[in-house]
Amino acid sequence: MLRRIFRKFRKDEIVKIENNEVDIAALRKKAEDYYRNRDFYCSEAVLKVLKDSFGAPYGDEVIKMASGFPVGMGNGCTCGAVNGGVMAIGMFFGRDAAGGSEVKKSMELTKELQTEFTKKRKVCCCKVLTRGMELGTKEHIGHCIEITGELTEMTAKILARELGYKEK
């Protein structure tokens, strides 16, 4: 069984959307595995999985933009996984020209993501989410893996709905 799981989630394999259905659980697991295996931190893992699976028209170089967000932007502010979700929403619904009205949709969906996350976790602040945990400990890493998965799932549901896919 482990061999089968490993084959399914090799680093270079993408969780594909098939038959217009998004396997939300598989996306979550892929993001969690990226973090667990130390391939990517929270913001990077969320962005990478959603970029790849939903077919954003960008190469992996966009992951570099997410590299400053882990550990609450390095000082404990906004959760990096939240920022990864926001960046993923922006990839599909953000504007690319001055004055573009697309920003309204991006901000609306970002607000939805933030509201859903704070409904569950109460805050988006990394310092508060990890209060009492020492950075890099098993407890801290496990907690962040879970949050990375949650944000991937929440963002994937928004993207699936807005892009016209069904959830599997």
UniProtKB/TrEMBL annotation:
InterPro entries: CGCAxxGCC_motif, Multihaem_cyt_sf. It comes from the Bacteria. NCBIfam families: C_GCAxxG_C_C. This is C-GCAxxG-C-C family protein. It comes from Candidatus Cetobacterium colombiensis.
